[in-house]
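Sanity check

After download, print the first record. It should look like this:
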Amino acid sequence: MGLCFTTSGLLKRSQGEFKDAVDTLQKAIAFLKEADARRELALAYLHLAGVHFSLKRKSLALESLQLAANAVSELGYDHFLLVEAARNTLLIQYAAANKLADGYYARVLKLIKTPQAVSRTELSAESTEQETTDGIRAYGFGQPRAVVGGHEVQDLEWRSEKSKEMFFFFLCNRRPLRKEEIVTALWPDLSGDKTSSAFHSTLYRLRQALYPECIAKESGRYILDPQGRFVFDLDKFQKALSRAEASPAGSPEAIAFMEKALAQHKGPFAQDFYGEWVETLRWQTEEQSMRLLSTLAAAYSDAGEFKRSADLCQRILEVDEYNEAAWYRLMSNYLRSGQIDAAKYCYNRYAQIVSDNLSGEELTQALLANESLHVLGQDRHVCHPSFPVRGTRPEAARYATRIRSMLRVCSRQCSMHLRSIFRAVQRSPGRWVHQIGTVTRPRRSGVRLCAHRRNAGHTIRTRSI
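Expected structure tokens:
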């Protein structure tokens, strides 16, 4: 019975139902105690500690870990526990940092902390590049991380998010930097008397996490170790884009380089950081990736590879579902490949999305502005049942422009990425802008952006950047 409850608790944890998982695992522990099943009891305590850790109940997590260590001590062996411990590295690191169970978890950590293999396809965009474990490999797209000698630097080794952010700041600025430049970028709101302490403590943690000479000091300025070897996915991304632009448009060479650039882009750049310096770079790389997807989709359409082109259009729409050019190309790909039903589905889906912002008549005019949508609109089974299919072309063009303007009320640089700004606002409210539809300059460099979603009955406001 105890094993059944343990399995049920693990299932609930995998489904994100952490509170239910706690209750179930506690029931399992009660049954296992009665049966004196110490091995299974130790595992149940470890699983319970993992759930508490996910719920940020760190004191309860430590308590469960101590009970697991006690059970292992009574057994006299712990090889079965190492497998589960290896799957919960952060939890074990936390226990080791707190010197729990007389250093038992520190010893467990040493046993499970073997070099982590990283796939060759993830580490390199060049098929001919020889991979070694020398130097540092940094990955900025998606979750920022660093790999030193085959070992991924863990959060507890960084000791603070700022030390990791400082490392990526140096990676993105390969030149000697004054202390004031670094402090302004990383601590823009910190008072002057506290910046020096924050800078030196963060620099010390960075050097401890990587190696002491990773940041050199020359003539009073700081720079990434000139003798070090750093492989950065952003550099590979930019290099592949440059080589694609230098190749003849639509050529196999250009497509190959664009695919290599796309392979490096695994998500928004440095999505764990929210400083002004990284937000600007994040917008630039997202805009580059959107242009890359659009160009690559067009190249595959021209080459007759409609399925690959459709897949790329879907990736665009995952980021910007209002991108009418992507909807047009997606439906065009389906039509040219004979998938009429898929094209009709896309038509209805696009109508549903924009209907949140336009009335029925306005929506129909906007849809008819696109020639491929107009063709699909002749089929009464395709159109939304409440939308007529008549309308004049000048009005249609005007409403199509209105759709675009709703999404581009800020600067052109971030026109396609307001959604990512809104997500950043939710995570870090910061300073708010109350004037709608304007761009003003704050005290520091940068601009304040705001957006107004029409016909939605509310205002979306963004923080200063």
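If your output differs, re-run the checksum step. Summary of this record's structure: Confidence is low (pLDDT under 50) at residues 114-133, 371-465.
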